[in-house]
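A quick aside before the break. I want you to see a complete sequence-to-structure record at least once, exactly as it would be stored in a machine-readable document. Don't worry about memorizing anything.
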Amino acid sequence: MTGTSTVRSYPFGEAHALDLEPLYRELRSEEPLARVVLPHGGEAWLATRFADARTVLADPRFSRAATVGADTPRVRPEIDHNATSILNMDPPNHTRLRRLVATAFTARRVEQLRPRAAALTAELLAGLRAAGPGADLVEHVSVPLPVTIICELLGVPVEDRAIFRAGADAALSTTSRTAAERAQARDDMNAYMTGLIEARRAEPGADLLSALIAAHDEGDRLSTAELLQLGTGILIAGHETTMNMIGNMMFLLLTRPDRGAALRGDLAKDALTRGIEELLRYTPLGAGAGFARIALEDVELSGVRVRAGEAVLAAVAAANRDPEVFDRPEELVLDRPTGPTLAFGYGPHHCLGAQLARMELQEAVGGLLNEFPDLHLAIPADEVPWRRGALVRGPERLPLAW
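That is the input. The structure line, written in tokens, reads:
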């Protein structure tokens, strides 16, 4: 079987709030490996079933490194020539870099950070209350919590957040920034990180960036370009997605009062853990299917032959609602037994900071529900402003009242 001749434009449309395009459900059932054409780089296969998406993410026959410098299907016009980014590497180079930072994000290390995150959350919630009803969750909690934690872990001055927040916005933009603006923001971010590396080299500390500098200077385990890319990548990824997910999760809970009340009624650790995992499964963080991978040889997915050299996209949000894997997949079931999802990816590129993100989400969501029993949106749900023209979804502002 060679698949359908129908080619659909992708993404299917502008992402609206946290709605998942209904076409994903249809494709998953009728055409699980669909042909799509992206704004730049041409056509790709779109995998919407859980098993297929997991294969694309983990099977070494699908390569990220093969996309570097190639005119592959993508949502932005720029061709990615950055071979030193861990996102663009395959094993063994990817494995080499990942090992250098993995110990900073283990479950044990993250639990050691929890008291600091809990104290910071309490401080931020007090600030939210002091600001009064109508205060913005994004400004008072969603941004400062993950930004402060990753800055302290990496060794970045939190007072510099205006610099790297601008870099993060540009890095994740699709149409909200021009190619020239993205390039300038990337240069500014690299210049900032270069200066910070030099400062840490002169005065090393007990932080991850100092450890990476030592790996470069003393162990020759990563190149100068890799050091720079790891530093900027961890800084951006270490706060951007969690920042958006705090707002996304609270929007879902506050616009489904029965779900919010159910979780508030049982904030024991196990119940909160299950609730956060279900919110991660259910929430479509990405505005599309993410980054393409290139088949290095012919591979069959759902009876369709993907030929060597063809690009494939894994539609994680659609896969996380696959009825072959999840009971009542379209429902937000907060007491669902925890099981495998693709919320943090899968395989070699499984999110390094998954445990850190989980902990921060537990502290933020649990803290908000516990501290504000009558929490609700201060504006109608359909008036909440959402990020547009970006790779990830999240509210620009989320005004709250209590």
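Two observations worth writing down. Residues 375 and 402 are 4 Å apart (CA to CA). The chain has a mean pLDDT of 94. We'll return to this after the break.
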